[in-house]
Amino acid sequence: MGTPFISHLEPTRLDGYDRTRPYYQQPGHVPKTFSDAMEVREAVFVHEQGVPLTNEHDPDDARSCHWVMYASVNLTTAPEERDPHSGEVIRPRKSETRSLPIGTLRIVPFPHPPHPQPGGRYVDNVLLDDESDNEKKGDGTAASSGTARPRARTLTSVDEERQASALPFGADRPTTYHDGKEPYVKLGRMAVIPEFRGHHIAGQLWRAAKKWLEDNPTFFNPSVTELGMDQLKVGVAGDIPKWNGLVCCHAQESVIKLYERWGFKVDEGMGKWYEEGIPHVGMFLRLHIKEGNPKV
Ligand SMILES: CC(C)(COP(=O)(O)OP(=O)(O)OC[C@H]1O[C@@H](n2cnc3c(N)ncnc32)[C@H](O)[C@@H]1OP(=O)(O)O)[C@@H](O)C(=O)NCCC(=O)NCCS
């Protein structure tokens, strides 16, 4: 494996992305970096963990920043050929170097849907009916494609907001590390393909994202000139939501220790819930950012 490198994609229009199809069947205008992120996410979350393909891409993808790590891999395209009698090489091995996407993560800007309900079971961001949820046992396995698919209850307005990922600023329930109001960004969709795990690929991706956040603390701050005070639902300029270094992640229970190594702490007040059948907890980290000029 050659020296890995990381690409960064800022929020981008993903109109026409068809979530029922895999990354290689998407319209040509989808940025290559995003398609590569989806290649990794599909390999890990869809094929390895059993999350339905249609639930992997979501409306947050277009408004998020994505990081993708590549490895330069030398692949043999035609093997060496030798003369069977003399053993002499009659055609040397042909190879080519390709950049393979091997890891990814994304940072979702605020505002976010409400924190998940403790004990709640979510499929595609929708809270399920308890009685219909007879398929998942809370043992870390993904919802299977068995006969009794969990049934999403009728969407409430809150669910619709979850799906649209567009809550008003500062309207959440308070938890251990979040007062329900402070804007936070969300680290998510972190995945490394199995062959490359244990080589600090996730660590390098997180360090790249963390440095970018520290260098660009005002990037996600809403612009009053673009949105207007009404849409921001604030009365005076001092109330304009401003990011102050708070990062959240919805961590699969099995990787809590990894996030703890990076300084995240489990938010007991958020409780435990299930996304696509996989147990999750909320974790928070405060980055120390320098005071920047808010985008107003
Ligand atoms: C979780 C995942 C992204 C880690 O990728 P990785 O490149 O192997 O991780 P790293 O090598 O950067 O590990 C960073 C540190 O966490 C540790 N670590 C990695 N996976 C761990 C795990 N599952 N549990 C506990 N510690 C773990 C490593 O030992 C390393 O510690 P060190 O710095 O003391 O050596 C990868 O295993 C994966 O894709 N898993 C499936 C998808 C997934 O669960 N994503 C997380 C969703 S919340």
| N- and C-termini, Cα separation | 45 Å
Q: So, CATH architecture?
A: 3-Layer(aba) Sandwich
Bound molecules: coenzyme A
Number of strands: 12
Helix coverage percent: 10-25%
Alpha carbon gyration radius? 22 Å
CATH superfamily label: Gcn5-related N-acetyltransferase (GNAT)
Provide the domain count: 1
Principal-axes shape call: elongated
Give the C-level CATH assignment: Alpha Beta
Q: What percentage of amino acids are in beta strands?
A: 25-35%
Secondary-structure element series: EHHEEEEEEHEHHEHEEE
The unreliable regions are 131-166
What does this structure look like?
This protein has helices spanning 32-48, 60-63, 157-164, 201-215, 224-232, 256-261; strands spanning 5-9, 65-78, 81-82, 89-91, 94-108, 121-123, 126-127, 185-192, 246-252, 265-266, 272-275, 278-286. The protein has 296 residues and is of the alpha+beta class. It has one domain: 3-Layer(aba) Sandwich (Aminopeptidase), CATH 3.40.630. A hairpin with a 6-residue loop joins strand 3 and strand 4 (89-91). The radius of gyration is 22 Å and the shape is elongated. Coenzyme A binds next to strand 8, helix 4, strand 9 and helix 6.
